[in-house]
Design brief:
alpha/beta, seven-stranded mixed beta sheet, binds glyceraldehyde-3-phosphate
Amino acid sequence: MADEFSGYLKDNMVPDKYRINSPIVQRHYLCDGEIKEWNGPQQDVLSPICEASGDTVRQKLIGTYPLLTEVQALEALDAAGRAYDHGRGPWPTMSVKERIRHVAAFAFRMKEQREEVVKLLMWEIGKTLPDAEKEFDRTVDYIRDTIDALKDLDRLSSRFVIEQGVIGQIRRAPLGVALCMGPYNYPLNETFTTLIPALIMGNTVIFKPPRLGVLLHQPLLDAFCDSFPQGVINIVYGRGQIVISPIMASGKIDVLAFIGSSHAADILKKQHPKPHRLRCVLGLEAKNAAIILKDADMDTAVEECLSGSLSFNGQRCTAIKILFIHKQIADAFITRFCDAVGKLKRGMPWDEGVRITPLPEPDKTKYLTELIDDARTKGAHIVNENGGDAKYTFMYPAVVYPVGPGMRLYTEEQFGPVIPIVPFTDIEEPMNYVIQSDYGQQVSLFGSNAELVSDLIDPLVNQVCRVNINSQCQRGPDIFPFTGRKDSAEGTLSVSDALRVFSIRTLVAAKETEANRRIITTIVSKRSSRFLSTDFIL
Ligand code: G3H
């Protein structure tokens, strides 16, 4: 396989439908309800997909986007602040029903752009066609589910509570201006899983696309602009240090939603002058372990660990990033696992049945090779054929064994197609690993003895936030809580949790006197308040 594979595009390898004939020059951004043109410097967008150009092979230039400055960033911040207007703007005071109407209108328009967004997901981050389609469809479903969840939440709040002589109505109110930033591996989905709940709860939003996965947001600019009132959603492009730092340093951000590294999250939080006023929802690193007990069903363990560690080349925060295998079954497991890895097809994102695609992060294959070399100098080996074979932006998955403490692969989040395997005899070894780890997102546990499994569940649920039994780690279904302990997360995201994260419980209360009863009844019957209301969304 290694011999035939070139690692770059050759003539006519791109189906017509997915071609980018000339670079997409994006000069527009959305600020204050207007799509503005930018005539300043642009950032080149290099695809992870390489092509031959003369004698050299290089990453294909697929477009450019605006490198805005602090001036445009602060304009966006002002626009979001004006639209919020200290909670008095039309958006934060709008009825829930009306806000839902705007978000539904956006989702309708968004669906029209599926083909273009999917194409750009393939070109910008190398996601396979089925995974890119799944990311798009899952995002549209997430919006629909968010709308349904908000209707439920609103219905529960459409009543008064009378307790100890006090009448109250409790609802969730927005927090203010939200800054939303997603990661490159799910540039659409994970950005929208914060952006949409933030908007629908009545916050105004500034959104910055991730460093990789920028152009795919362009087809949605018009839909954003047309679907929301002026200043409610603003999109800034450029380098984080230039455009995000001044926004954070202004102290005018009320909620930071960030999915990326804890290093970047810490910098952003510190830039805010009033940290106690800043709410944060953060999705950060993870090093999820799979623990394979000696009585595990081998077929299931191989299948789940394969897809858990190598879907999207291992570039998922939920990926299984280290495998602990009981010594008694290590040889049998490794033989079958490597055999399964050997069947994975390398190729371009649109190639049928492809599983291994080019990596978008700069110098990623070099970094992964360093991790492998470090393990090799400390006694581990690549145990699969062609493992670690790097061609331009491709790396063939490397199964590395036996990995142990002291090797970088033991603790570092590789976020790529390298699978470290650690042998164990005593269950305390993987348990200690999970306890000592800086991360605490999920664990996968493979075994068939209910008693043994249950002995491990109870301590593990206090170390991580999801224990998967005979199943790979994953975020979905999206109604499940998605979070982590230690350096892996702050706050919880799920369809319904996200609505809570971007809002705060607020109530209107009055002593139960005749006069107060009359006032409340009048307000409700005349429907003069949107908060104090018994309207029920059907
Ligand atoms: O990158 C982290 C994602 O939240 C993972 O989501 O488990 O659905 O791939 P997923």
